[in-house]
Amino acid sequence: MTRTSVWPQVEPLLTRVERPSRYLDREWGARHRDDASYRAVLVYPDTYEIGQANQALQILYAILNEIDDVGAERAYVPWIDMSAEMRAEGIPLFALESAAPIRDFDLVGFTLPYEMTYTNILEALDLAGIPLRAAERGDSDPLVIAGGPCAFNPEPVAAFFDAVVIGEADEAIVDFVRTHRAAIAAGLDRNATLVELAQVAGVYVPSLYDVCRDADGGFAGVSAEDPAPAVVVKRVVSDLGEQRPSSCPVVPFMDVVHDRLAMEVLRGCTRGCRFCQAGMIYRPVRERSADEVVREVMAGLACTGYDEVSLTSLSSTDHSQIEEILRRLKRRLSEGGVSVSLPSLRVDSFGVDMARLVAAGKKSGLTFAPEAGTQRLRDVINKNVTEEDLLTTVRRAFEAGWRRVKLYLMIGLPTETDDDVRGIGDLVQAVLGEARSATPADARGSVRVAVSVSTFVPKAHTPFQWEPQIPLDEVVRRQELLRSVVPRKGVDLSWHDAEVSFLEGAFARGGRELADVIEAAWRGGARFDAWTEQFDPRRWLGAFESCGVDPAAIASRMRTLGEPLPWGHISSGVSQAYLSRERERALTGTPTPDCSFDGCTGCDVCGDLGVTVLLGGDRRA
Amino acid sequence: MRDFRLRVCYRKAGRLRFLSHLEVVHALERAVRRAKLPYSVTKGFSPHMKIAFGPALPVGTAGEREYVDVFLSGYTEPEEALHRLVKASPEDLAPVEARYVAEREPALAAAATIAYYEVRIEGEGLTEQEVRSALERVVARGELSVEHKGKTKVFDLPHSLPKEPCVRSSSGGIVVELVVRMGQQGSLRPDALLTAAFDPATRPGVVATTTRRDTLIESDEGVWSRPL
Q1: ipTM of this model?
Q2: In total, how many domains does chain B have?
Q3: Smallest Cα–Cα separation from B161: which of B146, B140, B148, B178?
Q4: Yes or no, beta carbons of B18 and A305 under 8 Å apart
Q5: Interface contact flag, A307 B33, Cβ < 8 Å
Q6: Residue A231 has what pLDDT?
């Protein structure tokens, strides 16, 4: 296929748009493999500054560019000013490295980081001149695929993709590309190619699955056409150390979110919080060894020139060797003004000790997630943190010199009552009191507690996947109740927008009927919905109405345990038996321990997927 | 302990002319770290690299000889330092010269006040003479007020333009060479001057590209010299 650079047409536009560095390429670490015969482009469905640091895409970019004769590039959704200029000039969406139109690539791969980016997928495809629906694409169009966390319920966007990779793509993408290249070499047409790809482990080809209806026309599950598997089981790598290529990540010019070296220290979290989808779909826990982490941090800092490294994962302070890692890094980085950061902390004094190790002089603020305001509700969600744990941790942090903490909490969790909501107020009051009493009198004025409250959205593949989300008016009522009970002085209270949570809820557990809604919303002007100033709920409500879909019936309906679920043909490896057992334990307030500290709790991931918990040493309770 | 003050001249070229000054600052700091130069670090709670930049270039303006002082805690041969920096930099934002300068030399940002610009203008049928006359007319006003980001700045043109602009034809366009005296209160942008020079109704020419060829230090005696 011929690929021509559109750069000569793009360059004159850059004097007229905001932040032209979004579109420049030429960053340190960008790979130019224009001579490769197989070309892939990885697309993040938002702007450059939001997507550039996405670790999954950085890893896949490196892996694909290591394959002989394969070149991978990057694309992001141009901001509204740029897309208007591009449409006016007839310039299609292009990949950064070659500035070639993405429609001329062999493979276009989207990550699905968040439900509210769905309209941006259509914006990107439309700007690229690629038919929006897989069914409308022909042999001259690229394969358009997706992966990422939202792929675990792919149904709302299934119509837009030729294939979806379920789970970790580190190895799956290599298998996918190998199969696709073989199909190209064999001269297979689009449908025959997709049949081949459907047989690659972890690959879901939506067009080979049909929705079944019961006698009343209700959803009755999804059935696979031969030879596609009835259930697509997620891919998971057994050892992270074997996966990562040694090439240097792309270092942006622009001031992007997470503008630092990100080093993944472990994958998975088995604390078992029952609301948490990440804790279910990324099992099991696999740690990288301290030696490997330290070695790669040093190599990564040297090749990127960053002055900060973040040790990323779902729970980095749970790493069995985290103290050793931090001490060794601190020793090696003591000169040169390079800092280490941890994304979130466990709620105990060990968490504060680890924060002290990396804080050096600056103590900007610590973040903790008690999630719920009462012990009863924390037992329901299996958040094994007591109020005493939290207060001791806060005391220790303020005694050590911190003056700000941030607390993550939720409203709308299953079984929540007004007492639980009022409990949040009591908890915040207690934290504030503890923080003040641990602070010298002359510094108490600077004590701040930030409280961030989101609305619980039940997610697929979790013990709460059958639960109703609280309705919109109830969210508003509980938010008002909360506002009346949370102390004002010294507290910064913030909310997640109730209407956004409601839409997230519909997309989190909806089925294929939502594709029409997403397309209607996009045609009505919706895009960049994750940007508060761009989001307009009226566009969405209009779209739902015009498509005859009731979002409340998806988000706020109680499901029965046996009913077919739209994501029933997608498996995270965690068995439905485990999920329903965990739901039972939730309703009786029974905690379940973490298998990376104690014994196996029977989620069935390890046996069924041929992987196991991989630790560098004993974890510290 | 005293630092070694390495003055580096670099270019901002090609598509990287669209970087903002802050983006250039971050990119060069990262290049210094990648080059493993023994850079000095400030003291205090939030230590950072000791580095001092010359006058900022706007987004979209290229620079052939831009300057930055990097303070090193240990001596590295300038050729070696330059070589390492070049290897650690993208081609369009690469150092071209490096040499040590005395610590008593004034800071680049304050001292480098004379800028040589080359502005390429495009316009259907536009002649050298038309551009020359347009410039003469605007310069003859003596003063120019420019609105930028909601603020109005008034420039004293004889002071801001210490040399007469030079206009010449170049392949496919017209090039204006301007010398601008920059000030602490803001500097006259060449594109602002040329936009003011052209009749807004007919717009006979537009600025295609602007390049700062060099920045010079003006001494108290009025003598101009290169920072390197």
Answers
A1: 0.93
A2: 2
A3: B178
A4: no
A5: yes
A6: 98
